[in-house]
Amino acid sequence: MNPSSISSRSIVLRSTLIAILRLVAPTAGAAEPDEAALFRTKIEPVLVAECYRCHSAKAEKVKGGLLLDSRAGMLRGGDTGPAIVPGKAAESLLVQALQHVEGLAMPPKGPKLAATTIADFERWVNAGAVDPREALASSSPLDESRKHWAFQPVEKVIPPKVQGEESVRNPIDAFLVAKLETHGWGFAPAASRTEWLRRVTFDLTGLPPSPEEIDSFLDDPSPTAYERVVDRLLDSPRYGERW
After folding, report:
1. What is the pLDDT of residue 111?
2. Given CB 3.0 to 4.6 Å as the disulfide criterion, which of 43, 58, 72, 155 pairs with 39?
């Protein structure tokens, strides 16, 4: 066989082998197989057996706001902070809890897990805490409760634009009218002065206004007439008896 032919064939084979190796080589940042295997064989079984009943999306009650059934949940942590700090096992609360240090304990009742198991967790966290699981829940019950309007920071809100602008006498009216208009409704006709006086007097004292109180209010054309009625009723002993 011609030596030059052998040389050419060797070059082609070597180039092909290099190309194949480039195709199958792991990309930068991808989880190494042994790291994923470490999680699947050593870490996940312990979490399922010891932690999920109190720290997973399917738990009846998530303790401490901590979810351990996803990497995002571990990084977010619970009431005491992130459960893991990738690359730093000594600073990870999960590892500290397994070691029963700093007043932490996991499992909360019973002895510590085997030293080899704790060592596996330390190795896993120090290696970057590779976690091939998909998130089982986007948020915990605690996260959902934090979305309640009462827990949102106070901020200035611009009143909405409404069609029935004639009904808006203050910013709060704008929000009420906007909601009513979504149903094709509007405010009821405004109460007369006599009707208003009866309503506010019954509401605050549980009693009807006297004829003298009615006459006094109807004869008062000042813009503070309504305020004076409310102040008088709030100062009345009848208000305390009512409420």
Report:
1. 86
2. 43
